[in-house]
Design brief:
Radius of gyration: 23 Å
Number of domains: 1
Structural class: mainly alpha
Number of helices: 4
Shape: elongated
Strand content: under 5%
Number of strands: 2
């Protein structure tokens, strides 16, 4: 059940739930963007991932501001626009988790190969 619209004290206009959800989603995305930039400036996040996260968060800001586009889908499912945008964000995050798991698996394979190569080189040095 939707709550009633709230009164905007400055202009006397009503703010709908959709407007509140849009502003909330966009604000959260901007805050995460600032966090990503802070991590990148400290060298804790590589350039590749910084660009990826900033692109994703830019899309989230746009999606937050354009939630009215998903209104027909939300009405068809019987939920709000914020839920649709949030579900899409969760799906994107799951895809990122899968991609990072693939990257970590590849790095583990490279580390194992390098460790074996170093062990072979060290055993050749000790036997010579």
């Amino acid at each position: 059940m939707a709550r009633p619209a709230t009164l905007d004290s400055e202009k006397g206009n009503l703010m709908s739930d959709q407007m509140i959800q849009s502003i909330t989603i966009a604000t959260i995305a901007v805050c995460f963007g600032l966090l990503v930039l802070s991590l990148a400036r400290r060298g804790m996040l590589s350039f590749r991932y910084t660009i990826g996260w900033l692109a994703l968060l830019s899309i989230a800001v746009l999606a937050g501001l354009l939630t009215f586009i998903v209104s027909p889908v939300a009405r068809w499912i019987g939920t709000s626009e914020g839920v649709i945008v949030s579900a899409a964000a969760v799906l994107v995050l799951l895809l990122i988790c899968i991609q990072l798991s693939i990257s970590v698996s590849g790095l583990q394979k490279q580390i194992r190969s390098l460790a074996e190569h170093i062990a072979i080189l060290e055993s050749d040095e000790t036997s010579a």
